[in-house]
Write a structure and sequence with these properties.
Strand content: under 5%
Number of domains: 2
Radius of gyration: 20 Å
Largest sheet: none
CATH class of the largest domain: Mainly Alpha
Helix content: over 70%
Number of helices: 10
Structural class: mainly alpha
CATH topology of the largest domain: Serine Threonine Protein Phosphatase 5, Tetratricopeptide repeat
């Protein structure tokens, strides 16, 4: 009985994959993005970073923001393409300027670390703030760290706590730890 259910699920999955591939091939940006995710994750189909980046790029070229962010991730990690922090930063910047919170937080971290961009704490704070305004927990925590250490901003423990607290309340472990020691 269990084997019959698994066989039906496999047939349904294959049918959905065929439809998704057809939509992606016909230029549907969302289908291209989803197909890229499937190839990157390797859960429904075998993991293939080269196919993942191919589909992410096709969707990104059509303006799909999550795809643009993921192209940046692929370049940052060197998955399916040679690792290139400059190219990653460019893709993150495109998505960040279109209000993509994950891209904003990641771009801020690149500015903080000087990866692919010139190290600049003030620019890091700018992008962390943009992401924090969208309640991005990592950005809230990162901004709290910037205020705690006085990086790109004047050291201000009260402001740091004001950023750590909402992230900690959402279960962010680093923010929780920082709240515990403040």
């Amino acid at each position: 009985m269990q084997q019959d259910k698994e066989t039906l699920q496999l047939i349904d999955t294959k049918a959905l994959l065929v439809k998704l591939e057809a939509a992606a091939e016909s230029g549907d940006a969302d289908a291209q993005y989803r197909l890229g995710c499937l190839y990157r994750m390797g859960e429904v189909i075998p993991k293939n970073y080269y196919d993942a980046i191919k589909w992410f790029k096709k969707a990104a070229e059509q303006g799909h923001m999550d795809a643009r962010y993921n192209v940046g991730v692929m370049y940052y990690l060197g998955h399916g393409v040679p690792r290139n922090y400059n190219t990653a930063a460019s893709w993150f910047s495109i998505a960040a300027t279109h209000n993509h919170a994950f891209a904003q937080n990641t771009l801020a971290t690149l500015f903080r670390q000087g990866q692919g961009v010139e190290q600049n704490d003030k620019d890091a704070v700018y992008w962390y703030r943009r992401a924090a305004k969208q309640d991005h927990s990592d950005a809230l925590c990162n901004l709290g760290v910037m205020y705690t250490l006085g990086l790109g901003v004047k050291k201000d423990y009260k402001k740091a706590i004001s950023y750590f607290r909402p992230a900690a309340e959402r279960g962010h472990p680093i923010a929780q730890c920082n709240m515990g020691v403040m």
